[in-house]
Amino acid sequence: MAILLSTNMYHTDEFHEIADYIRAFTRGIGVEVFPLFHDPEFEDALTLQMNALEGLPISFHGPYYQAEHSAPEGTEEFERTMRMVRKTLDYSRLLKSRYLVYHHNNVRVDPEKKDEMIRISWHNYQLVKEMFRPYGIAVAVENVGVHERGNVLFEQDAFTWLCRREQCPVLIDIGHAHANGWDLPKLMTDLRGQIISYHLHNNDGHHDSHQRIHNGTLDFGAFLRAWRRNGRMTDWVLEYAHDVIPDREGIVEDILFLQKEYHL
């Protein structure tokens, strides 16, 4: 198990700030790199931090901005997405990433096209999985989308059924589950043995605001109790929004809190 800090909160010109947290913790934390390859400046920003990242527990989020895995092969959206995925693979290999996070979709879901989106995005998952397989990098399916944004492709039962059927590695985003009214302890129990990581953040139960772990209506203590009951060693990834950046003391407080909980 490792505790990682996601770079989701940073724009390209802020990416270097992750090094401040790497230096601050003598016991060490890892990093989940949120790639911004749609930005032509990002690769240089990432390259400048390679020395700081090498040797740490590392994971990579899949491309998000301008990326869409429910786009059919042959479309501009598909080609752009896969170019960014291949670039992500290059750096995942160099940094020995533990896994890649996969979103089945990012766009709003048209009910009339839902079944086709599911079929295409699952096909594209297989393509990505085969790209990463030779390097021993798992591709973990995340529960994504929130009702408030209209981009929920899978409700809880459907998500659980698909993950069980395919026996794929899973990353549970507890903030997404909370915003959608999912039964998080049940989700954790139903997918026990497949969950390899959690995205940790909080919200008001409606908006996907990615706030600090105790800043919201999700009972974080209840999550920890459910996590202990399930008895599986998983990664924890703090995934904050951009507006949390100024709260450096709060971010450090969350990391220290999780380090203490891990050792219980």
Tags for this entry?
globular, alpha/beta, 264 residues, 8-stranded parallel beta barrel, TIM Barrel, single chain, 10 helices
- Which percent range describes the beta-strand content? 5-15%
Largest sheet: 8 strands, parallel, barrel
Enumerate the strands of the largest sheet in spatial order, edge to edge or round the barrel. 1-2-3-4-5-6-7-8
Q: What's the CATH superfamily, by name?
A: Divalent-metal-dependent TIM barrel enzymes
Q: What is the subunit arrangement here? A: single chain
What does this structure look like?
With 264 residues, this protein is an alpha/beta fold. It has a single domain, classed as TIM Barrel, CATH 3.20.20.150. 40% of the residues lie in helices and 13% in strands. It is built from ten helices and eight strands. An eight-stranded parallel beta barrel has the order 1-2-3-4-5-6-7-8. Strand 7, helix 9 and strand 8 form a beta-alpha-beta unit. Helix 8 runs parallel beside helix 9. The longest helix is centred in the N-terminal third of the chain and has 19 residues. The radius of gyration is 17 Å and the shape is globular. The mean pLDDT is 96.
